[in-house]
Specification:
Layout: E1 5-9, H1 16-30, E2 35-37, H2 42-46, H3 49-62, E3 68-72, H4 74-86, E4 94-98, E5 130-135, H5 145-152, E6 157-161, H6 174-185
Parallel strand pairs: 1-2, 1-3, 3-4, 4-5, 5-6
């Protein structure tokens, strides 16, 4: 039996990969026996979609079939954008998104090259379940974005957590790790 692989996608901005290394470490610590892949997506560091898209596509193609994607902040929006625009499911078993800014074309946190069409959900591949988590005390991405995502992706499970801020650390909330453990067991 092969170990499950989790592909963790960082948030955006200079130094985001280093900042999000704590989340990758928390994933590895909470889920022993799971391979956590944490490639640096240079386009996310530069907040440049033209370079993010091919790097993210390569990371998703390297994910073994049945792998799980966990993405933080703008990295989560980038994954949704790429999946809805490419139409490929990449064999993803489940998608876990943490503190994702609402980036739709109605220009609330959109209007840049990371924004995407309001009907994107109709173009998402039929991959595994989508679970979205947001902390009520996030001081960067407004908590209300979780409700906006729930309206756009009705099939997604949205979970409000407390005390995690934007970085979801230093330890992941038990809601995230328990849900990940269930997804791995399925």
């Amino acid at each position: 039996m092969t170990a499950t692989t989790i592909l963790f996608i960082q948030g955006a901005g200079e130094g985001a990969h280093d900042e999000d290394a704590a989340i990758a470490a928390a994933l590895q610590s909470a889920l022993p026996g799971v391979n956590v892949a944490f490639p640096k997506i240079e386009g996310l560091e530069a907040v440049d979609w033209a370079s993010t898209a091919p790097a993210l596509e390569a990371a998703l193609k390297a994910l073994p079939t049945g792998g799980i994607v966990v993405a933080h902040s703008l990295g989560g929006a980038a994954v949704l954008k790429l999946l809805s625009e490419s139409g490929q499911d990449h064999g993803i078993a489940a998608l876990f998104l943490l503190a994702v800014p609402y980036k739709l074309a109605d220009h609330e946190w959109g209007g840049d090259d990371f924004g995407f069409a309001t009907d994107f959900a109709t173009r998402l591949p039929q991959a595994g379940p989508i679970r979205m988590y947001h902390s009520r005390d996030d001081d960067f991405v407004p908590f209300e974005h979780l409700q906006k995502w729930a309206e756009k992706i009705p099939a997604a499970v949205t979970v409000a957590v407390d005390g995690c801020g934007h970085q979801f650390g230093p330890d992941l909330p038990p809601e995230v790790t328990a849900d990940l453990a269930r997804a791995i067991a399925e």
